[in-house]
Amino acid sequence: MTDDRELKMPSSVLSPLSSCIRHLIFWPIFIGGLTFDLWTKSAVFGWLGGLREQGVAIIEGFLRLQLAVNTGAAFGIAEGHRVMLVAVSAIALVVILAIFIFARGERKIVVVALALFAAGVSGNLYDRVFNGGLVRDFIDVVYWRGRHWPAFNVADSMLCTAVGLLIISSLFSPESCQKPAQPQK
pTM here? Predict the structure, then answer.
């Protein structure tokens, strides 16, 4: 027996949006995400300032708040190249905003992803410009006993979430959901 049911996203998530709705989705997510990122960095670094070496366990053996600073991009790429990283981040932010402003008919999921991208890039760009080139990281995940994922922050989480949303969007776009034409016999 074959199952003809397809995996589908709700049409409301994939349908094009009016300009007003796009702005009502994008700007609150962007501003809220940026504000939350900067607040968490400030709060955690203020709270754990004296506990820099120990950190605080949230879920013992899995999740800790541990202060760390990063002079590079993801996984320490381009470490110590502050000017280049600031320039790349600024250009990325301009491109993201241009895509949002000039593209028409974007789906909700794409607008949310662009807002998360903009917030994540802006949060880390703020640190690079106003924190001596040091991006403040504080989330420490142990994925195997004694093995830690590189420390990250809320901005990094928003960037990863945005990538995930764009992948989902491309998998469930109307074009990708169409069945290929069957050859006639």
Answer: 0.82
Total tally of structural domains belonging to the chain: 1
CA 38, CA 155: separation in Å to the nearest integer? Answer: 9
Residue 143 covered by a domain: yes
* CA–CA distance, 134 with 80 (Å, rounded to integer): 9
Whole domain around residue 134: which residue ranges? 15-173
Which sequence positions are flagged as catalytic? 137, 156
- Confidence at residue 19, expressed as pLDDT on a 0 to 100 scale: 83
pLDDT tens per residue, range 20-39:
899 999 999 999 999 999 99
Asked if residue 24 is part of any domain, the answer here is yes
Q: What residues contact residue 155 under an 8 Å CB cut-off, 6+ apart?
A: 37, 119, 120, 121, 122, 123, 124
168 in any annotated domain: yes
Q: How many CB atoms lie within 10 A of CB 103?
A: 12
Domain assignment of residue 6, yes or no: no
Quick check: 2 pLDDT over 60? Answer: no
Residue whose token pair is 């994922």: 149
Please count the helices (runs of H) and the strands (runs of E) in the chain.
6, 4
Q: Which residues of 53-79 are buried (b: 16+ CB within 10 A; e: fewer)?
A: eebeeeeeeeebbbbbebbebeeeeee
List Cβ neighbours of 27 (8 Å cut-off, separation of 6 or more). 115
